[in-house]
Amino acid sequence: MLSKEVAKLINEQVNQEFYSSYLYLNYSNYYKEEGLEGFGQWFYVQAKEEWDHAIQFIEYLHDNGESVILNTIQAPDNKPENFLDPLKGTVNHERLVTSLVHKIYETAHLTRDFRTMQFLDWFVKEQGEEEKTAEDLFKKFELFGSDPKSLYLLDNELGARVYTPLNNNR
Ligand code: FEO
């Protein structure tokens, strides 16, 4: 059984992950509408992965006899104003998500909830990777994004991203 506080934070995290999915879908739509199909595909895959994260948290609650409370998902901000906006937004958002995962981890640690800490280990590692990927993409765009030929190549590169469903990582 989880402590009330840990169960509450995990329920909130479910909502955050669904919001992440929504946010990235919004970015995906924006790029597709602007003709950058590769960027659109990259964010579409990102949105699907965030959905998977939400499901992972839901399953963890179920596995521990907890109720899942689905709340309203906040709408993302309006469409970005330029190609760089979503990349900057992704870096900031992933940093925020990392801090939320760490908060759950810290709470679990304080209550000697070793099971939850072990469950969260995968997310701690995943957040490190997601932050790095987002930062790299942001830097790449800053370096090459203003040159049409380079932008075309970058768009092709990002369009190669394929969705791989999550295995059971617990
Ligand atoms: Fe599920 Fe990108 O955090």
What's a quick, concise take on this entry?
The chain has helices spanning 4-33, 37-63, 85-110, 114-144, 148-159. It is mostly helical and 170 residues long. The two termini are 17 Å apart.
Question: How would you sum up this structure, described in words?
Answer:
- This protein is mainly alpha-helical.
- The chain is 74% helix and 0% strand.
- The protein contains 5 helices and no strands.
- It has helices spanning 4-33, 37-63, 85-110, 114-144, 148-159.
- Helix 1 packs antiparallel against helix 2 (37-63) and helix 1 runs antiparallel to helix 3.
- The protein is elongated and about 55 Å long.
- Bound molecules: MU-OXO-diiron (FEO).
- MU-OXO-diiron (FEO) binds at residues 17, 20, 50, 53, 94, 97, 130.
Q: Major sheet, described briefly? A: none
Helix content: over 70%
State mean pLDDT (0 to 100 scale): 96
Percent range for β-strand residues: under 5%
**Number of E-state strands:** 0
The topology string of helices and strands comes to: HHHHH
Distance between the termini: 17 Å
Radius of gyration: 17 Å
* Spatial shape: elongated
**List of distinct ligands in this structure:** MU-OXO-diiron
Multimeric status of the protein: single chain
How many individual helices? 5
Structural class, by secondary structure, is mainly alpha
**Low-confidence spans:** none
